[in-house]
Design goal:
Order of helices and strands of chain A: EEEEEEHEHHEEEEEEH
Largest sheet of chain A: 7 strands, antiparallel
Number of helices of chain A: 4
Number of domains of chain A: 1
CATH topology of chain A: Pnp Oxidase, Chain A
CATH class of chain A: Mainly Beta
Strand content of chain A: 35-45%
CATH superfamily of chain A: Electron Transport, Fmn-binding Protein, Chain A
Shape of chain A: globular
Oligomer: homodimer
Number of strands of chain A: 13
CATH architecture of chain A: Roll
Chain lengths: ~200, ~200
């Protein structure tokens, strides 16, 4: 662990500069009147019990739907649905039936009465536990009630291999697939055997 | 936008399955007694004013430092410091001077009295605006007071080219660099000129 040339720094104005961030399609409403909103201001906020935060501008069509229904779905985005994901971020559900326009397939959550996206590799069903008004956005804290995973992500041993999902990250206004794996949690203190076993696959 | 074969779904227990997520080195304390904690439960939660959430387990050494000082730094992680990042996630500041052990370089924030990491491509200075007890973790909402960017990220026109940073994402327990760029915000409805201009670079 040696220093590199650290150069000098430029001060810029306070802004939302955390990168990369997730990008997900959040679903809301019911099976008859379903909407999709693409969000990047999302994050895991608690482990036990599992909770996710999503931040939505008050004026967005989905805002009041989620607020009144108290439920939402978080659908992860793989490369093969990134175009639909982008489309759901630039069009409003006030004018558009996004499921119809994108040809994405609706299905109902197992534990939460919310539409989900069948083409998404991982769908997370949430109930709203809290709402905070932060300014431009309201932050909804969702408790995770159920998770379903595409059967294509399971390896021969029955373990989930998320690298098969081709998930997309959002970085400074652009969508990227993940590239090289450069480590695993604990690799900096792992022994040679663990490094050989886990970094080779 | 056509359907693909959607296969079938496997239900798994409620868990923290949002992926990929950011991974950052959060700094706290002062220039004499500084600590670094690696966190992935972080996210942007508001745009105007800019706010970030970080979730920290109550028993972590940094938890009380951030709570009592009311400030923290969010240091983005590039591939060349991912090993130090991992190390700061598996060792505790109770036992270790992480700046000394990782040879990372401390510098003081411009607007917030908090140590930051000079090797980080982007450092975000935050003041704690709110704390919520969620269960295993406390969620700290930080208002962004300043951002500094390495001068190496600026292109010839003086614009920030974040692709130069080699930022790392965290995906299901593993660190990945970003791979191919597969779109930009609005690409699904962009005209041919914009697509040619922006997807070529």
């Amino acid at each position: 662990m040696n220093n590199k040339d650290i150069g000098s720094r430029i001060q810029i104005k306070p802004s939302t500069f955390l990168n990369p961030v997730p990008v997900v399609m959040v679903t809301c409403g019911d099976m008859e009147h379903a909407n999709i909103i693409t969000l990047a201001w999302v994050g895991t906020v608690n482990s036990e019990p599992p909770m996710i935060s999503i931040s939505v501008r008050k004026e967005r069509f989905s805002h009041d739907i989620i607020r009144s229904s108290g439920v939402f779905g978080v659908n992860l985005v793989s490369e093969d649905i990134v175009k639909q994901c982008d489309y759901c971020g630039v069009r409003s559900g006030r004018d558009t039936d996004k499921f119809a326009e994108t040809h994405l397939t609706k299905f109902k959550g197992e534990k939460v009465n919310v539409p989900l996206i069948a083409e998404s590799p991982v769908c997370i069903e949430c109930k709203v536990a809290d709402i905070s008004e932060l300014g431009s956005h309201d932050m909804f804290i969702g408790s995770v009630e159920n998770v379903s995973v595409s059967d294509k992500l399971f390896d021969q041993k029955g373990a989930i291999d998320l690298s098969r999902a081709g998930l997309v990250a959002y970085n400074h206004g652009e969508y990227y697939v993940l590239g090289d794996r450069v480590g695993f949690f604990g690799f900096s203190v792992a022994g040679r055997d663990a490094l050989n076993r886990r970094m080779k696959k």
